[in-house]
Write a structure and sequence with these properties.
This protein is an alpha+beta fold. It has 6 helices and 4 strands; from the N terminus they run ααββαααββα. About 40% of the residues lie in helices and about 15% in strands.
């Protein structure tokens, strides 16, 4: 069963706040923000453009395992870059393929060069489950004769 939809449909269901950090912020500041906001990754924005992304995975692999200090290391030193972004009109199916192929968990959403949102693999899975459930309900109603043609 193929369920269609666009990223804008997911963004419309999410809060509009997108938390970001700058490349010169310390990793400690970024991790503190992520903990306060209960998010697993944060886009790194420089001059209004997405310069990279910092995830919990970046922190554990590039700070903790390397014995660096999060209080003295700049985000730009460990962020993942370049980062793959998507537009609001990108299909949900396409984004699932990107996340699977790139083995990442978050995709910044950009419109006209500006960050407008962030989607996670959880957002994509939840949307897919909801869409499949709605499609199954429609099929069941049709079979039971409750669907208006």
């Amino acid at each position: 069963m193929k369920i269609s939809g666009s990223i804008s449909e997911i963004l419309n269901r999410k809060p509009t706040d997108v938390w970001t950090v700058g490349p010169n912020d310390t990793v400690f500041e970024a991790i503190k923000l992520m903990a306060e906001r209960n998010i697993g990754a944060v886009p790194v924005v420089d001059g209004g453009a997405v310069a990279g992304i910092l995830s919990e995975r970046d922190y554990t692999r590039k700070i903790v395992l390397c014995g660096k200090s999060s209080k003295t290391t700049a985000v730009s030193e460990i962020m993942s870059s370049p980062v793959r972004t998507v537009g609001p009109d990108e299909s949900i199916d396409s984004c699932m393929q990107i996340i699977t192929a790139k083995r990442c968990r978050h995709l910044p959403v950009v419109r006209d060069g500006k960050l407008v949102g962030m989607i996670s693999i959880g957002d994509l899975v939840n949307w897919t489950i909801s869409a499949q459930s709605a499609a199954l309900d429609q099929m069941e109603n049709y079979i039971m004769g409750g669907y208006a043609a």
